[in-house]
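Hi R.,

Here are the chain sequences for the assembly we discussed:
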Amino acid sequence: MSAAKGYFGKPMKRVEDPRLIKGIATYVDDITLPGMLHAAVLRSPYAHARINNIKADAAKASPGVVGVFTGADVNDKCGLVPCASPMPDSKIPKHTVLASDRVYFVGHPVAVVVAVDRYAARDALDFVEVDYDPLPVVSDPEKALEKDSPLTHPEFRTNVAFTWSVANGGLDAAFKRAHRVIKQRMIHQRLTPMAIEPRGCVASWHAGEGTLTLYTSTQIPHLVRTLLPGMISVPENRIRIVAPEVGGAFGSKLNLYAEEALCSHLAQRLGAPVKWIESRRENAAATIHGRDQIGEYEVAVKKDGTLLAIKSKTLADIGAYCQLNTPAIPTLTGLMLTGCYKCKAMRMDVVGVYTHKMATDAYRGAGRPEATYVIERLMDIIADELKLDPVKVRLKNFPKPTEFPFDTLTGLTYDSGNYQGALKKAQQISNWNKLTKQRDAARKSGKLFGIGLSTYVEICALGPSKMMSAGGWEWGCVRIEMSGKVTVITGATPHGQGQETSFAQIAADKLGVPIEDIVVMRGDTAVAHYGRDTYGSRATVIGGAAILMCIDKIIAKARKLAAHLLDTKEKSVEFRDGKFSAKGKPKKALTWKQLAPEAYVAKNIPQNWEPGLEASSFFEPPNCTYPFGTHIVAVEVDRDTGEVKIVKYVTVDDCGHQVNPLLVEGQLQGGIAHSIGQALFERTVYDENGQLLTGEFMDYAMPRAKDIPEYLMDSTVTPSPSNPMGIKGVGEAGTIGATPAIANAVMDALSPLGIRHLDLPLTPEKIWRAIAPVKVK
Amino acid sequence: MKTVVNIRVNGVEQKHEVEPRTLLVHFLRDCCRLTGTHVGCETSICGACTVLFEGKAVKSCTLLAVQADGSEVTTIEGLAGDGRLHPVQEGFWERHGLQCGYCTPGMIMMAVQLLERNPKPTREEISHAIEGNLCRCTGYSHIIDAIEYAARKIAEVKK
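And here is the predicted structure of the full complex:
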């Protein structure tokens, strides 16, 4: 698609912003329905306990309370929380919406109070008496595999939830050939997504019609609509899901949660709308977590740095049960383990382990940050062990630009790439030679100064339907209204990414109309009839292509109408700049505003021409997209405090053509901030009793403004052949690419002290303990 | 037992009968139906609920409505005058200072206070001023750009 028309490729400010900056947007907690009741959920304070008895009489008598419900009251009417991606040997526990006889993580919902207002509901929680018998707990995945470990689900007689492997090439031969075999254990700490808006929903049952409307803070209204009937016995075509304004998600709202089904059930049962809004503590404890893998990694290399093989045994601590995509996440790590490098052989064996913690699932990057972290750390460790330049080691192993599409050992085909180009540009921008001299000088003066880089590739815009559990396409619909105004409807569900703007840019150029004439609608299954929503950096790539398909259909149809009205042949009708004209007669052109009334009034239309100017389309991508780039980071580590200061941050990212560079920059900066958190501060901590110690913003250390460096950002453009616009996803690239660059910089800074590897997060305390002249335990 | 609380919100008298324990943020959201002020943590850490209370930026999730009785409160809805955006709002729009928008009202109110106290802040001073406001989408850099934009805009208008 050419940038000639003016909207595509421009850094345009967002059309969705005015309502957000004026405070007049509607998030789920802003919705009030007549007669609406408020739910509050009582959660387990124990990581593992038997429930002997629940007494709810006092709670029921509490002022304003309409009802108190326990597992015994609802679990036979409300189905199990679904997992859509089990592995062949997965053991999936029967995870009911409320605990039945046992709780198995802190935050496990035990009872729900419904009252006339939120204060009354929360008051009454204190009057629900639960008689628990605490049971033995395992919160460490390695201990969970020991013979005498407490069991998360005793019925399985093991804590192994599933196993999964990916392997290709002659591994033994490669390791035999190797000049050097390098081993490293790495821990990918558990993280909490912490969208600033917690989860919440309002369920409304329309008894007369037998229909349910569920307003919910979700990324996936369409998937919820497909899955919810399995829990509440209302058929799909009688359910409307509305994702209103959604206040951040990062994968944590890519799920069907117990509370959504519970409120839907209670609204039917009580004959009144029911609202539930999660508190921050609940969000930390009972909304999915991310990462949490422990891997033993081994690479076989030649002495010149050529990568021969990589293998890994990985434990994925998935917590107490499976949410929607829990088992699938570590498989993405395996698929991307070889990163942007050629390799002769690879193997990764994953063991998914149950522990008494909240379930893990897709958190920004979802399995790919683990892969880039491993391979990019290993690249630096290889360089360090072989006394080679980390840049040269990378260059030695990159596929050439001419080798794309590039087939990986893991069965993927990288669509397009020029890894050398991004690396070279990033080095230029960072003033690489000067930067290394600065490091040398700093070291001479006794400072701990380090440079790190990450040359990443990631898989996104998933993907062809054959690799997905329920469709990898996206749906769209475009209508030229009778007035000539344009309505674009997408099955994607943006929640901050800005597709109301970027889709309008795409449509305006293609139709040749002013962007002001376009409105983009999303997030309501009554409007956007079908869709696969927003996750895995897919919305612009796949959803945008669906919009283009719709417009192609409309133009083809309008051409027939124009030929009729211009009294010429269809093939001699030209469409340019939003106008249809007969060849050679540009002055007698018809605009959309002139055509549209004819199309709908339909008194003067071609024979057998179906009235209206509307089309819908499903775009099925032939492949995923594989954005890539180079991040270069320089840090200074304070010897006395262990504090890390990022003194330089350079990125060159390649997501193909950019629809809106301003939004691309926003996605990258936001993604990098998640990485800064992961690399330096964040860790979800459970103690040995399974108590969550990071249940609040006070205890869970997210980056604040002062933790963010000044960026030097640039890009290269290697179009993707997998979609008509040549674009690639960018929502997660920052988070996937940045973490290893920061980690590598810190480890480079510490290398003069003989420290090879520290696990994330690289907190001042961890660094200080590692460098303290006297080890303090 | 309920008590009458009278707060002048965005220049309008708001008199409502509430429980004494009612938080200011719930008074604004539930009684006044001004839902632009958001709740992100209920512990005054995230700053999504920031409003101006007697001209000072406060976190309305940890202030009781009764404590604000008889006072002046400005919320995000009261910032744009005569249909024109406040320079800080304009800065957030121009510089892509928001994505999901949930932290934005609180972030804007905090920035308004900053620029009233320090019309020409450095980027470091801006970072420091918004330390009590968490954003999980933008990575802050564009927010700092937005506040710098607003500072310039306010200075131009004063010239």
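The radius of gyration of chain B is 16 Å. Residues 141-158 of chain B form the longest helix (18 residues).

Let me know if anything looks off.

Best,
T.
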